[in-house]
């Protein structure tokens, strides 16, 4: 179908934030291969934009710095979202899904999940299905463990495999710097490495940290910095040892806390204010221990039509 035919039709654009896990407590592997989590998600102001336009058949396009690494077939979570929603409402997923990608790919910031949630909300709006929020969240959970949070945004505790969400209060703005790594890491590979490193050890039940929830509710960056934790960090560092240099460079530049974001390899630096964020981002870029560094604020709103 010619582009002009598509563009003459109505389209819907949805903006979806990235996430950082301020706590990622990981339990032992379950019989289904997943891990029970106590996963404290915080949405951050780095966004993908997903636009859906009626088309002759489902197709995906992507632009942005990492666009070449994004699959454009039906394995893309945005395509799967359109297919699942269409099936539920007895129609064909005949849309062009365009992803304007700014969230690092395979970076531990839920970029793929953001695209799934964005495409779902955009198709739902375009098709006027009238699906309830619960139904959309249900489809999100079917798409992946992090997808419900991409829809909801803000801050939330994710339990189960991360998909069961309890919203959390956030009492202020937190300033962050995110360093993109030179390559990606596969989430299943990081969980497998977690299992390997855990062999022979008893893994405690994952529970949310009370001091961390309190720090979020107060909007206190020092208290949050003292409480952040990521049980996947040793596994990510084991697979990608150079990340230790990036973490050290951010700490030396004045970050209050430095951690791997989710399964990595993006590294996350909590800083006191916007001025400190600029300095840490500059120092990280100059350190040559990462591909690029970006500042972002949190919390950010979930998937929103623009
Ligand atoms: O849910 P999602 O498809 O995003 O998960 C990707 C992979 O990450 C899973 O196949 C699994 O290997 C791992 N994972 C896990 N435990 C979780 C979430 C994800 O082991 N709670």
What is the β-strand count? 12
> Are there runs of 5+ residues with pLDDT below 50, and where?
1-5
What global shape is seen?
globular
CATH class of the largest domain: Alpha Beta
What small molecules does the structure contain?
A: cytidine-5'-monophosphate
CATH architecture of the largest domain: 2-Layer Sandwich
Distance between the termini: 25 Å
Helix-strand topology string: HEEEHEHHHEEEHHHEHHEEHEE
Mind summarizing the main beta sheet? 8 strands, mixed
Question: In a few lines, what is going on in this structure?
Answer:
The chain is of the alpha+beta class and 306 residues long.
Q: What report would you give on this structure?
A:
- The chain is an alpha+beta fold and 306 residues long.
- The protein folds into two domains: 12-168, 2-Layer Sandwich (Ribosomal Protein S5, domain 2), CATH 3.30.230.10; 174-298, Alpha-Beta Plaits.
- It contains eleven helices and twelve strands.
- Strands 1, 2, 3, 4, 5, 6, 8 and 12 form an eight-stranded mixed β-sheet that branches.
- A hairpin with a 4-residue loop joins strand 5 and strand 6.
- The longest helix has 17 residues, at 111-127.
- The radius of gyration is 19 Å and the shape is globular.
- 52% of the residues are buried.
- The structure holds cytidine-5'-monophosphate.
- The site of cytidine-5'-monophosphate (C5P) has 12 residues, from strand 2 and helix 6.
- Cytidine-5'-monophosphate binds next to strand 2 and helix 6.
